Amino acid sequence: MSSGAPPLPAAATCELSVASYKVHRCIGADGRHDPGRVAEVLRELDADVIGLQEVASRFRGDGALDQLAYLARALGYQPVAGPTLLQHRGHCGNALLTRLPILGVDRVDLSIAGREPRGAIDVKLGLGGDDVRVVVTHLGLRWRDRRAQARWLVDALGEDRGGFVVLLGDINEWLPRLGCLGRLHARLGRAPAVRSFPARRPLFALDRVWVHPRVGLIEVRAHATPLARVASDHLPVRGTIEWLTSAASVA
What we know:
Elements: E1 11-22, H1 35-45, E2 49-57, H2 67-75, E3 78-86, E4 91-98, E5 102-109, E6 119-127, E7 130-138, H3 143-157, E8 165-170, H4 181-188, E9 207-212, E10 217-222, H5 228-231, E11 237-246, H6 247-250
Parallel strand pairs: 1-2, 7-8
Antiparallel strand pairs: 1-11, 2-4, 3-4, 5-6, 6-7, 8-9, 10-11
C-alpha cells in the first residue's frame, strides 16, 4: 500500500573545474608584458572557477590596463578583486574569475608587519542547489610567515566541516615537510603536489588546489602547454571536482 509520500529525488553527479594561476602581472618567462597571452592560457584552461595571483587591477594613466577587467571581459567571467598592494596608479593582488553566481565576498588580511602585504578572498558561489566556498590566496616568502598565514587561514575557515570548500593559491612552500602544508592538509585533506614552477622547467609544487571533502577531488594537473610555459613564471594548476547532488538542484 502506497504511503502517498513523494519519491526522493535521484542523486546526480556534477562536475566543477577549478584552477589556480599566478599570472605575475602578465609578465612572461621571457620578460614580456602580454595580457593577451595570459587570456589565451585561461581560454585553454576552460575552468569554471579560476583563482589568480599577482593580477593588476584598477590601473590609471596613459597606456594603463586593468588586467583583471580585461581578462574577465575577454573570456566572459565575473571578476572578484582582492588586491593586497594598493598604490596610487593601480592595485595588484589576488582575484577570482567565475562562471558561477556570486553570493557573497569576504576578504582576509594575512599581512605581517614589515613584510609585503598578503591576503585572501573568500567567495561564496552558487552551484545548482548547493553552495561552494572558494578561497584564493598567495602566501609569503618566509617560512615563518607562511606558517602564521596558514594558521590564520584555517581560523578563517572555521570549525564547520560540513560545507564544500575549495582553496586555490600560490602557497610558496619550498619546504613541504617543515612548512605550512601540514596545517592546511589537516583541515582540508591532502592536496596533490604537481610541479608548477618555474614555468619553463617546473621543479617545485608551489601552486595548490585543496578541496573539502577531499573525496570530491578527482584530478589535479599542471597545465603545461607551450603557451603556458612562457605566458607567466608559473604554470597554472587545474583541478576537476565531482560531487553528488539531488536531481532537483540540477534540473
